[in-house]
Amino acid sequence: MSVPKLVDALASAQVLFDRATLEAAIERIAEDIAQAYVEGEVPVFLTVMNGGLPFAAQLAFALGERGLDLEFDYLHATRYRGQTSGSGLAWLHRPATPLHGRKVLLADDILDEGHTLLAVKHWCEDQGATEVRTAVLAEKLHDRCVEGIVADHVGVQVPDAYVFGYGMDYHEQGRNLPAIYALGD
Ligand SMILES: O=P(O)(O)OC[C@H]1O[C@H](OP(=O)(O)OP(=O)(O)O)[C@H](O)[C@@H]1O
Ligand code: HPA
């Protein structure tokens, strides 16, 4: 089966948030997060790959600028696998850093139905993390979110449409677009 083309999606897509707006949102999140830790604390900073990568990188710099050191690790859990609707969550990589007794800061691109963040948060707690703080660049507005998960820090709210760019893929394309787009009809 042929892969839908990014160029065709872009032709009918709508820009929801441009780069400057997203960068400002990340600075705002960083300000709040930096205040949530006491001096000298070093949380384990877990990037949820792949989509969380651009957001996590920018957030990490913004936190470094504010004097918060981070211990980096990452995980890869996926339930969309390049498609525009989700199914069962598959773990492709788990963090190697022991989480027992540690504070964890999770960074992901989007909280949509919430299954991914909820499962990852529970897993960190099962590993013995003393606190799991969650930060997402975007939160999708609808009433299909699984119970028990609310992101602690949210950059922007997006409408109930498939969105891509700034880490999020359109059939594994467009992750490095420096804006968030909503897919058109
Ligand atoms: O709130 P949910 O409905 O669970 O969806 C959110 C998750 O879906 C996307 O990951 P995806 O499965 O597409 O993996 P990817 O980051 O590798 O693209 C996104 O990066 C989040 O991790
Ligand atoms: O709207 C979305 N776009 C990209 N990836 C996603 N993962 C969950 N929802 C989305």
From TrEMBL:
<dbReference type="InterPro" id="IPR029057">
    <property type="entry name" value="PRTase-like"/>
</dbReference>
<dbReference type="InterPro" id="IPR000836">
    <property type="entry name" value="PRTase_dom"/>
</dbReference>
<dbReference type="Pfam" id="PF00156">
    <property type="entry name" value="Pribosyltran"/>
</dbReference>
<keyword id="KW-0808">Transferase</keyword>
<dbReference type="InterPro" id="IPR050408">
    <property type="entry name" value="HGPRT"/>
</dbReference>
<protein>
    <submittedName>
        <fullName>Hypoxanthine-guanine phosphoribosyltransferase</fullName>
        <ecNumber>2.4.2.8</ecNumber>
    </submittedName>
</protein>
<feature type="domain" description="Phosphoribosyltransferase">
    <location>
        <begin position="21"/>
        <end position="147"/>
    </location>
</feature>
<keyword id="KW-0328">Glycosyltransferase</keyword>
<dbReference type="GO" id="GO:0016757">
    <property type="term" value="F:glycosyltransferase activity"/>
</dbReference>
